[in-house]
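Work Package 3 (structural annotation) set out to generate three-dimensional models for the target panel prioritized at the project kickoff. During this period the team completed the workflow that converts sequence records into discrete structure tokens, so that structures can be stored uniformly alongside our sequence database. As a representative example, we reproduce one entry of 714 residues exactly as it appears in the project archive.
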Amino acid sequence: MPHFLLEVGTEELPADFMDGAIAQWQSFIPESLTEQYLTPQTVEVYATPRRLAVLITGLPPQQPNREEEIKGPPAQIAFKEGKPTPAAVGFAKKQGVEVDSLELRATDKGEFVFLQKNIPGQPTTEILTALVPQWINRLEGRRFMRWGDGDLRFPRPIRWLVTLWDQDILPLEIINGSEQLKSNRFSRGHRVLHPDSIAIPEAAQYVSCLQQAGIEVNPQTRQNHIKEQVQKAAASVQGYAEIPDELLSEVTNLVEFPHAVVGKFDSEFLELPTEVIKMVMVTHQRYFPVKAEAEDKSPLLPYFITISNGDPTKAEIIATGNGRVIRARLADAKFFYDSDSDEPLEAYLPGLETVTFQEDLGSIRDKVDRIIEVAEELSQQLQLSPEQWEKVERAALLCKVDLVSQMVYEFPELQGIMGQKYALKSGEDPEVAEAIFEHYLPRGAGDSLPQSLTGQVVGIADRLDSLVSIFGLGMIPTGSSDPFALRRAANGILNIAWAGNLSLNLGNLLEQFSEAFVSGNPERESPLNLLQDFFIQRLRTLLQEEYQVDYDLVNAVLGNNDGEYTERALGDILDLRDRALFLQQIRQTQELAKIYETINRSARLAAKGSLNTQELDPAAVVRPDLFEQSSEQAFYEGLMQLVPQTQAAQAQRNYQRLVDSLAEFTPTVSRFFDGEDSVLVMAKNPEVQANRLNLLGLLRNHARVLADFGEIVK
């Protein structure tokens, strides 16, 4: 079967566009072909900095013929007294058939006109001619641009177009204002190694033709070559290359013909912190560091590896040029490091007053003062010792100071890292220094969490201050817009607390610091309700997506517009997590199913009564003198035995104890509903009815200690 090739040639594309473009084409090109009743054998998407291409194999020469049923207007509108109306004539004309071809058929909504239409398959080339512009125009990404005097948008100007159906050119034209770009078979080779255009004889030879012209169009192949060459280059200087995934991906998208080049810098720069050297290499220069050994914490060697897209015979010149660049960058870093180290870290604290956090919220120093206040309340909740609080307070005071250092001004990515380094050089407690770095963790999805208690407390305090302050200004995340990364901040608070098993009353914290915000900004409204809703949504998302708890079980522990459950969830987020995970566990072991029907039936009936959801003691709300059946007495006695079990389960967070007790109680409840001495709950005597509803309400309340069973789906 034929091969089809599309190559869109451009000026150098942004590296961060290419992976997304490949994924998009891999998704919607097969989909669009399927919609046209075309099923390819393979769809291979290729990309280099100067092209996007797709090679499709196994397409048939034309669509299959098909029969399609088309529904028309209602029969009573299409025909009057057996004769076609303008509605029927118009429908037939639109479909290209005679009125006689129409038939009437009964449906659930009455009789309608139908047409059984035979549709001959179109030539595949005609369909591709229509689809290719859609494939190009549907691509999305950052930094799309217009060029020339046209309206066509693409990350970089399109300079050539190849469209081949086997050996034949599929005529296609892209018009961009006064520019007209017609497709042909001429691609372009490597800028240096093969600057001339290259003719592609047929679509199937695309990859091999480009390889001969110094281009490896398969990104995965390029990436594999880079990894192999980098490790081989490192071994040539008796070292091991460090290959960060993000750097590898970026470099793969920056070159068409990768060639690893080893460069060298002066050993004196190894006195700099390793993080600084790696930041210069990886982030600013896109070099791969070389270590003495394979271990993560192995010291660096005075070498780097760069991936050249130039002439391999000029490797020595390339290495020399790159060496001059990195030496200059490292010399700057060493100057900043030495200058910053001349003063103790605390000496830079006044400089924070000159840096604005947010125009309505003051300076970074103002924020530091607020962080200390929040950290103090956290420390009291966690019952930290005076020694622990002293470290927390010191770390909170110094946590942002490195922002005014020369090093962080030049390399903002090093914030926190340099704070830790400078704190240690200044003689600060190692745990304080560690917390200065850790309070920024996690910096994103998949990042590590702070391990020290000091780092955890300062990290939570920093994020909580940002959330209360920004929400207080009314700058609430909407849709995909979250310029202050508040969702990430809230997730960070919850993940840090859960990972560290920190027993926080988040509800009290939100209330206290919302009030403090309003006190300092009396013209503003309290952000408390918005913050509560925001955190409930974050809890819901984390439990479902990261902890894999079923949605209905999450609803059962968070409640559905249930103020009591909202207060409880925010008041003890560890208990919330434990209850959600426990429910998921007992669903898998079928223990939940054993008590579900009984609890749910009781809760539905209890809703007809007036008993509050907090009461657990039968003696307070049930009158045994109103019992008419022995099943009521048994229910009452069972509830009396359940009280200490529920209280102990709640106090110890041992919810297995509660579930076991509810399971033992289930036969008694079944007897109450369906046994020989069962009762009619909704008795005519209002006092008897209320008494029985209170029995059921008490059972519901005991179950509510674990979850709202009404939210659980069977």
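The CA atoms of residues 117 and 694 lie 67 Å apart.
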